[in-house]
Amino acid sequence: MKPVTVYDIAREANVSVATVSRVLNNTAPVKASTRERVVSLINKYQFSPNALARSLIKKETGMIGIILPDITNPFFPEVLAGLEQEARNKGYTFFLCDTGSSNQDVQAQYQRESQYLNILVEKQVDGIIMLGGRVDLVKCDPDLIKEVAEVNKRLPVVLINGNLPGASLYRVVIDESAGAAMAMQHLIDLGHREIAFIGGYKQMSNTIQRVQGYVKAMERNGLPVDKKRILQGGFSVEAGKKLMAELLKNNEHGRITAVFCANDLTAIGAIKTAVKAGLRVPEDISIIGFDDIPFAANSMPELTTISLKCTELGRMAADVLHKLITNKKVSRLTSIQPELIVRESTAPLKE
Length: 351
Known about the structure:
alpha/beta; 434 Repressor (Amino-terminal Domain); Rossmann fold; four-stranded parallel β-sheet; elongated
C-alpha cells in the first residue's frame, strides 16, 4: 500500500497542506470543525510525518550537534545531562561528537573537530554547541577560529566556557576566576597561608582563569605568591598524583598546609598521594577541588569543591541555541556564578 502523505490528508479533508501542518504542529489556530476533520483522518490512516518531510516544511531538522573533547571526563556528561534534558523538552535530538582528547594528540583533536563541523553542516543540523578543545585555548590558531566563524554564518554556534575571539559567537560561561577566588578565600578564612595550586594546562584559558583567581586572592589577603607552588600538567587523577608528589618532594619553602586543585579529578589524585605519604586529609593538609563532579561527594574524605553548576550550564546553552534557531533575542554572553560546596577535605589550620 502506498504510504499516506500530508498531501493526501489535505486533499481528503479539503484543506490546504498548511492547515494540516498547523494541526500537526499546533502552530496556529484552526477552526474546531476543520481540526476535528483533519485529526480524524490522521487517526484513520495512522499518519505520522517523517523527519525529512518536517524539515522540508519547517526548514528545520529538529537536530543539534554537540562537539566535546572527552566524554570519559565526568564534567562533560554532567553538562551533557542538562543540555540533553532542555533540548529534549524543546523537541530536539542531537548528534554527540567526542573528539577524544584523552590521547593527548591535540592536533588530531582539532582535526576531528573540523571533521565533525563539516559532518554536522552536511547533516543540516539546526545549530551546534561546542565545549572544550579549541574554544579553551588562550591563543587559538586563526584558521581554527575562521572555520567556526564560517559555520556560524550558516547556522548558530554556541560556546560553553570558552571563547574564539573575533568570531562573534554566543557564549554561556561560568565565572571561573570568581570560583577560584572563592576556593582560595575559603582556605584563607580557615587560617591557611601556605597554599599551593596544582593541575591544568598553561595553554588553556580555564587554567589561566583559575590561576588568576588564586593569585588575586593571595594578594588581596596580603599573602606572597610563590610561583614554585603553582604546578601544572593535566586534569586527570594521575596528574593530581604526580603533581602532588612533586609538590611534597620539592617543598623548599616551609610546610604547605593547603592545596587548591584545578579540578576534582586532580584533587582526588592529590588526596591519594597525600595519604600514601602519611598525611591526613584534612587534619594535616586541606585539599579543595573545582567542578563538583559526582565523584566529589563520594570520595574519601568527601571533597570540598567549587560547583560549576554543570547541569545548569548545559540547560542554559540549549536554551540560548533554541532562541537563536527560532530567531529570538538573546544576550551574546550568558554568565553563571559558581558556588562553594564545603565538605570534609578542608578544615581549620592546626597550629
